[in-house]
Amino acid sequence: MVALSASDSTGYELSKRFDKSVANFWPASRQQIYRELDRLEEDGLATARLVRQERRPDKRIFTLTASGHEALDEFIRAETAPTVVRDDLLIKVAGLDESNRGDVADAVRAGLEWHEEKLSAYRKLRSAALGEMSEREYLAGGPDLPGFGPYLTLMRGIEFEESTVRWAREVLTLLER
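Above: the chain sequence. Below: its structure as tokens.
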């Protein structure tokens, strides 16, 4: 609903917007987004209008309803549960012993590669969002600036990936001694 509240969108457009805004902390496949749009429509939280196109398949454009905006406002005002981390890699590292040291190191290396790629993607998003401005200049624009909320979440995503990359490198250094 947050992604849809920004503007009327097709599922495809939402998926692209999702990738640039909340995917750094709430990943969803395109199929999940389409299923969620259908559910929002069934629940009366969104409506869809069909747009006929020549030479391309027809598309459905979704709009958040008044009930959808109310539900989003209620969600924002509701108490937020603490974040719970469930990370298979941390379980593997916790199970480290002399017999599986190489396997754990391989798992950490694979995780490191994945997080480095994610960090690179987030940094590209940040560069695109900032354009010619410094981050300080951008943030001085404040909450009324379009894309400000998603940018704040992107900052958190970058911070998370940077700390995970540092941790993985340190673990590998310790395991390779």
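DSSP finds eight helices and two strands in the chain.
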